[in-house]
Amino acid sequence: MLIIREISSKRDKKKFFKFVIDLYKGNKYFVPIMIADELEEFDPKRNGAFSYSECKMFLAERNGKVVGRVAAILNKAYNTKINGKQLRFSRFDFIDDYVVSQKLFDAVVSWAKELRMEEIIGPIGFSDLDKQGMLIEGFDELDMYVTTYNYPYYIKHIEKLGLSKKVDWVEYQITIPTVVDERLCNIADMAMERYGYRILEFNKMRQAKKYITEAMEVLNEAFEKLFGVVWLSKKQMLDYSKVLMMVGNPDYISVVLNKEGKIIGYGFMAPSISRAIQQSKGKLLPFGIFRILRDLKKSKTIDLYSIGVKLEYQNRGVNAIILRKGLQGAIKNNMKICETGPELEDNIEVQSQWKFFERRQHRRRRCYTISI
User: Fold this and answer.
1) Can you give the pTM of this predicted structure?
2) Domains and CATH numbers, the chain
3) For the segment 294-340, what is each residue's pLDDT rounded down to a tens digit?
4) Residue 73 in contact with residue 89, Cβ under 8 Å?
5) Distance between alpha carbon 171 and the CA centroid of its chain, in Å?
6) Longest dimension (CA), the chain
7) Cα(253)–Cα(267) distance, rounded to whole angstroms?
């Protein structure tokens, strides 16, 4: 017998997060999230997004065994921003059984109607820092830690539920050259000379701590107009800064100042920890932390977490300065590949950055929608 139940206890939440690890056991492309990180993400006392959001979590169980899960998120700040009535869904995972996916989605629809919402969208999380989009291309590519993997059968389930495309994100794999492209260097040099920009240099991550936190304010402005984005709370910015401090390397942290000494742009990159997380099966202890530290030193793939430039300084060479700095660090450390992470498919300005590199668009993710 199939049972769908709303959960709230820590014990049930652990079942919620562990289910996906069991579902993808043995899959060489799936990279699990750390269960401790997920517990924090869905804890109203620890995730700053709950200052403007509400959430319900549902488990599907058959004969005492978990066979599916879904979270429903009411992002009140985004609804205010767009003057809309949307409910989001996230962490929608299930066995290949249409009854399971239908009953789970019915629970989301039921809450949406109770709230008098008019649209359901997803998968999309609390904020732009959260995982978003269902994988629809690139099932034979190793996932990033900051994204999510799913089986191809999910697409048929979603379409059978009546959902259709809202937006797509695309991802690129960049081959890191042995030298920085002269054209990129020229753009960076001209911008620095013409506008008086300068880039901060750090020898140790603790020197970058103050500036990383300040740069998060730029993130809010730079991404404000993008789909699904709301301004991050102070706590969210602080938490994200802590993550960057943990995995960061001065060679890949770029902070650009204008001639008045104000931060106008940043670039956050870090060596990939996908293999380490995969081997640790979502657990930091007892050996997960050592695997992560090993990958931070030995990985030949670098993940691009975020690049942001204040609106008034966009298209004025700041991106070139950031890319050159990150690329110089990657070449210095003998990196071979850069993973860009998700970019909205119609964000031509972002994708034009990769014209200087050998690249391939290897993954695509979709946010779906349905009117209710």
Assistant:
1) 0.92
2) 7-169 (3.40.630.30), 177-335 (3.40.630.30)
3) 767 788 999 998 899 999 999 999 999 999 999 999 999 999 999 99
4) yes
5) 12
6) 70
7) 6
